[in-house]
Amino acid sequence: MKDYMLKGENKHIFFNHAEQDAVYKAAKLGTKTEGKTMVMPWLPCIRCTNAIISAGIRKLITHKQMIERTDNKWKYELREGLKLLSEAGVSIVSYDGKVGERAYMHGEEWEA
Ligand SMILES: [Zn+2]
After folding, report:
1. Does residue 112 contact residue 65 with C-beta atoms inside 8 Å?
2. Dist CA 3 CA 67 (whole Å)
3. 8 A C-beta contact, residue 44 and residue 67
4. What are phi and psi of 26, to 5 degrees?
5. What DSSP assignment string belongs to 8-43?
6. What pTM was computed for the model?
7. Ligand 1 geometric centre to CA of 98 (Å)
8. Alpha-carbon span 90 to 5, nearest angstrom
9. For residue 11, how far is its CA from the centre of ligand 1 (angstroms)?
10. How far, in Å, from the CA of 92 to the mean position of ligand 1?
11. What gap in Å lies between CA 32 and CA 29, rounded to an integer?
């Protein structure tokens, strides 16, 4: 791993995103994803959305307060991801409440 791979936007190019990585790890372990529910604190970007749809995942559970803190630079990705999920028939439930953990996002730490 080279230093330049970890800097700025490069970390989004050289590394798998969390949801994408979860789908790959399920495949590696032989865990069936078809028809399953994925729990995530945020909404998936377009890249992760495609992995979720291809894996046959049918429902996402997200965290409303985390989504509300989304930086403007990600809003296009999340909006387009939502369109793809809707077209694919993936349902989304947004949990509204505290989860009781410290969260870190966009350089800010808060009580999630
Ligand atoms: Zn992603």
Report:
1. yes
2. 30
3. no
4. -60, -45
5. TTHHHHHS--HHHHHHHHHHHHT---TT-EEE-SS-
6. 0.87
7. 23
8. 32
9. 11
10. 16
11. 9
User: Amino acid identity of 108?
Assistant: E
- Express each pLDDT in 55-90 by its tens digit: 999 999 999 999 999 989 889 999 999 999 999 999
What the block records as the tokens of 9 is 């936007």
For residue 50, how far is its CA from the centre of ligand 1 (angstroms)? 9
pLDDT for 18-63, tens place per residue?
A: 999 999 999 999 999 999 999 998 999 999 999 999 999 999 999 9
pLDDT digits (tens, 9 = 90+) for 90-103: 999 999 999 888 88
